[in-house]
Specification:
globular; 9 helices; eight-stranded mixed beta sheet; alpha/beta; eleven-stranded mixed beta sheet; 37% strand
Amino acid sequence: MTCCSSAAPVAASAPPPLSFRPLRRPGAASLALPLARASRSLAPVRAALSDPFVLEIAEKLEDSLSSAAAAASPPPLQKLRDCSSQSLLSKRWPSNKDEPFRFTNLAFLKSSLLLPASSPTALPIEAPLDSPSPHLLAVVDGRVAPSISRLDALPTGVFVGSVSAIPPGPTLDRVVSVLTGGFADGDLFWDLNGVGAPDLAVIFVPAGVRVVDEPIHVRLCYSEGADVGSECLPVSNPRVLVVAEKGAEVVIVEEHLGIEENAERCYWANSVMEISIGEGAKVVHSYLQKQSANAAHIKWTSTRQEASSIYELIEVSTGGRLSRHNLHIQQLGPDTVSELAAFHVSRNDQTQDLHSRLILDHPRGYSRQLHKCIVSHSSGQAVFDGNIRVNSKLMLDN
C-alpha cells in the first residue's frame, strides 16, 4: 500500500520560456552516443533516447574528465560511471508535466550554459577549513582535498577520504559491493552525478567501532561560479559513500556552501550521498545547505538500513535559488528505526523542495518524520512531498 502526502507551493510563478541548443558532437569518444547508435534498431529504445539536451550534458561531463584520469579510476568509481551512463540513456529532462517536478521549476537550469567545473592545478583554499570537529573531510568541486582536511585522529580501522586512497583488500571490496550505481529509483540527476563525479569520498566505519564523541564533518565547497546575468552555470558533482558495518555508530555533519569569494555567484551543485547501515548499526546525519542565493542545489540521499539499525536525519536548508532534496530510505530488515526532521527557509525568489520516500517492508519497522518551512517573501515557495510505502502483507498481519 502506498500512502502519499503532498503540499502545493506557497507561491509559484509561470515558468520562463526554455531555450534549446543543438547537441554538440565532439570528436572524442562518448559514453552516451555509441550506446544510442547501437540501439537504433529498437523502436522502444529510440523513443527513450530522444532527449538531446540530456545527451549534451552527459557529453560535457564526460569530456571534463581527462582520458588518462578516467582510465586510472579505481574500480568503484569506474563501476559507478558505467552503470550511470547506461541508465542515463532512458532519462529525459523533467518538466512540470512530470508529477515529481510539478511544482519545481527547472527552466533556468535548462536555459543556462552548463559548464562542468574544471580541475584546478591549485586549490582555491590553502589553509585547513575552520571546523569545531577534529575529524574534517574537505571536498572541493567534487574532489577530496587531503591538504585542507583533518583526519589524523580517527579511531583505528575507520577510513575517511578518497576511494583512490583505499588499498586493495576487504575495505575496498566492501565499498565496491555497496556502491549502487544502478539505483532503480534514481532520477536523471542521480545518473548525471554518477557520470560526472570526478571522485568518490568514502566514510567507512568497521563493525563495532563508534565515532560519536566528535562528528565527522564533511564540508563540500564550491569554488567556481559565474556572474549573475551571465547565463553560465558551472556544475559540480560531489559524491559521498557512507558505510557503517554491523554494530557501528557514527555521527556525520554534511555541509554544503560556496567559498567566501563565491558567496553570491551562480553555480549548480548536483550532489549525492549513499548511506549503508549494517545490522544493529546507527548513523546520525546532520545536513546543512547554505549555498549562494543564486545557486542551484539538487541533492540525493539514499539510505539502506539492515535489521535493528537506526538512521536519524536532521536537515536545515536556507540557501540556493533552487534547492531540491530527494530523500530515499529503505528498511531492509525488522526492528528498524528511521527518524527525520527538516527545517527550510524560503526567501525572495527561492524554492525549497523536499521529496522523501520511505519503504517499510519488514515487521516492527518504525518511522517518524517532521517537516517545517518558513516562506518569508511572496516570491518564495516551499514544496514537500512525502511518500511512505508499507508492505501490504505487514498491514494484514497487524
